[in-house]
Amino acid sequence: MADITVNNETILDFTKQLKAQNDMFPVLSILNNNGDIVDEEALKRANLSDDDLINIMKRMLLSRQLNIRSTKLAKQGRFGFFAPTAGQEASQMASSYAFNHDDWLMPGYRDIPQIVAKGWPIWKAILWSRGHALGNEFTTEEGEPVNSWMPQIIIGAQYVEATGIALGLKKRQKDAVAYAYTGEGGSSQGDFYEAINFAGAYKANAVFFVQNNGYAISTPRALQTAAPHLAAKGWAAGVPSVVVDGNDPLAVYLVAKEARAWAISGNGPVLIETLTNRLEAHSTAGDDPLRYRKQEDIDAWWKKEPLIRMRQFMTEKSIWDEDKENTYISEVNTLIDEQIKIADKVDKQKISNFIKNTLEVPGYAMKEQIAKFESEGK
After folding, report:
1. Which stretches of the chain are DSSP H helices?
2. One-character DSSP codes across 52-77
3. Using an 8 Å Cβ cutoff, are 210 and 187 in contact?
4. Whole-prediction pTM
5. Could you give the CA distance from residue 217 to residue 219 in angstroms, rounded to a whole number?
């Protein structure tokens, strides 16, 4: 083989390129599995007060209780589609704490807790799962708008929606961003690439989260893509990209806060890969995780889940204890009980309602169908 310059030899060293990709994405971490701070300066940079820490803990506990109760309701046939969230509380709830009311949330179907945290009533979330039209009404109990779109069922499509809203916010010079969540499976979709490429090209006010929870339904992350880190895909679009310990609430909050500040300053979007794990089934539709993963792996991840480390950290700071946690859990369950009753009392939809809701102005044939079904009480 002919001799070439050292520079060109390095360029043609494909093995070295793959290693370089891996080395360029260290994992951001502040709180380890034992609840110990590993970077005091990063904690200071997050600038979280004791009240903030308590609020984040409560948001994560809310998410966990919603997960527990929704799973039970689904088994009773009283809930529609539900995607469990256990294990992803930091990735979802600590990250969303960095955003405010004016920011627009573009969720996937596993991101119900973040919408509830923005003020969406739980009874509407229940109706959404049941396919009721009122479940697509994004307002608070008081009728105020909740800046969120409906949970996206199409994998990764919420990225495209977020990009459009983010560009609109930029053109209107709003001090706000659009933030979107997808799983690692979403990063394999065309919508994912199109969205981050467009957002990067136009420096849209967007923050994108890829929740790398290990499995896209039953497909392990390692079989989806050869990319050493999913965050590396953001570089192809010229987007700053970060990998963070997705079970570390403090690190997740810090990177989300800084990504938001970067985006609203006119610098364009940021892509954040959160390393976490889905501890339960993909959905209540019937998949069995033990068909594609081992119980030992699940048990190991349960020991690293975010509530454990946050609880230990806050207990050591003397701002949290078992009594406070149990009291709050009781309050959440009382709220959920009340919200279930509200959802159950809502009038069931009729066939005529479905036709009425299809178009703002029904066509002639649709009007005939509506009249027919209404005459039959349907």
Report:
1. 6-11, 14-23, 40-46, 50-75, 89, 95-96, 112-117, 122-130, 157-171, 190-201, 221-224, 232-235, 249-262, 295-302, 306-316, 322-345, 351-356, 364-375
2. HHHHHHHHHHHHHHHHHHHHHHHHTT
3. yes
4. 0.94
5. 6
Whole-number Å distance between alpha carbons of 99 and 162? 14
Which tokens go with 328? 């709050």
* pLDDT grade for 228, boundaries at 50, 70 and 90: confident
pLDDT in tens, 87-99: 999 999 999 999 9
Question: Which of 79, 132, 129 minimizes the C-alpha distance to 349?
Answer: 132
Q: Mapping DSSP to helix (H, G, I), strand (E, B) and coil, where does residue 33 land?
A: coil
Q: Which superfamily does CATH assign the domain made up of 23-347 to?
A: Thiamin diphosphate (ThDP)-binding fold, Pyr/PP domains (3.40.50.970)
Contacting residues for 279 by C-beta, under 8 A, at least 6 apart: 84, 86, 87, 298, 301, 302, 305
Comparing CA positions, the residue from 176, 96, 101, 111 lying closest to residue 145 is 101
Tokens (6 digits) for 330:
């009781």
Query: CB under 8 Å to 129, separation ≥6 — which residues?
Result: 70, 79, 80, 81, 82, 135
Count of all residues that appear for the chain in the document: 378
Contacts of 120 (CB under 8 A, 6+ apart): 138, 140, 146, 148
Tokens 């609840």 correspond to: 35
| Position 131, amino acid | G
CA Rg value for the chain: 22
Percent of the chain with pLDDT over 70: 100
User: Domain residues of the chain, as ranges?
Assistant: 23-347, 348-377
Q: Is the pLDDT of residue 1 over 70?
A: no
- Range in 242-256, 295-309, 354-368 with the lowest mean pLDDT: 354-368
Q: Catalytic positions, please?
A: 278, 282, 292
pLDDT tens for residues 65-120? 999 999 999 999 898 889 999 999 999 999 999 999 999 999 999 999 999 999 99
